Amino acid sequence: MACVETSDDRVGEVLLKRVMQEQLDEMLSSEVPVVVSAETQELESEQEQKMVLQLAVMIRTIGDAFKENRELDDVIDGMVGQMTSKTSYWNLVEKVFEDGQITWERIAVLFYVAGRIAVKVVIAHLPELVKDILKWTLEYFRSKLLDWIQKHGGWMNSFAALARVQVERISSMSARSSGLILVFLGGVIMGSVITWKLARRT
Questions:
Q1: Tens digits of per-residue pLDDT, 150-172?
Q2: 192 with 82: CB under 8 angstroms?
Q3: Which chain regions cross the lipid bilayer (predicted)?
């Protein structure tokens, strides 16, 4: 059991770093930080490496359906200045799982949006925030999602669900999933502002 847990944790960490780095690598900026470094936790087997590669492609395909979404971009832009602490970032992340429902699709959306936020903070000339976003997302993943992943058969069991979502994204962007991302981000500015103001009082 411990071996499986370690594997799911390790795959999740490397996958998040890869998804973030791929989006950062598209930027033509000297400020782009390296997320995947020599310190990156190594994968133990070729099977894990293949899994991360395939999952990264699936997450990218799902996320790319939202890439041209101007509304999403505007909401993320509005949030960049509000992410002042782990608490404010976690309040944002909680919007993905607001109704208490964790799904493979929502985990994929979280990883993708973490990468989009990383890109936005670099554009805003705040590249030092990228490491915080990575750290806060990993802490959230380990604290709130890892147990669910293990109880649902580990990352290996994500492929069928993500493949179905991927096909839906390619054929047409569903209103429900578009709404999911906007629910994730829609109420964020208000929550982040409140958290930020409370944090400044202490």
A1: 999 999 888 888 887 767 665 55
A2: yes
A3: 179-199
Domain ranges of the chain: 2-29+45-201
Q: What is the DSSP string of 21-39?
A: HHHHHT---TTPPPSS-TT
How far is it, in rounded angstroms, from Cα 97 to Cα 115?
18
CA atoms within 13 A on the CB side of 163: 7
Helix 175-186, helix 70-80: angle, nearest 10: 20
Could you tell me the two tokens for 189? 């500015």
Give the CATH class of 2-29+45-201: mainly alpha
Alpha-carbon Rg for the chain, nearest whole angstrom, is: 16
SS3 149: helix
At residue 45, φ and ψ (nearest 5 deg) are: -140, 165
Count of other CB atoms within 10 angstroms of residue 43? 18
What letter does residue 95 receive in the DSSP assignment? G
Compute φ and ψ for 107, nearest 5 degrees: -65, -45
Q: Could you tell me the two tokens for 77?
A: 């832009």
In the numeric block, the tokens 């936005």 are attached to 120
pLDDT the model gives residue 18: 93
Distance CA 185, CA 20 (A): 18
Which stretches of the chain score pLDDT less than 70? 1-6, 28-33, 35-44, 68-69, 72-73, 75, 81-82, 166, 168-202
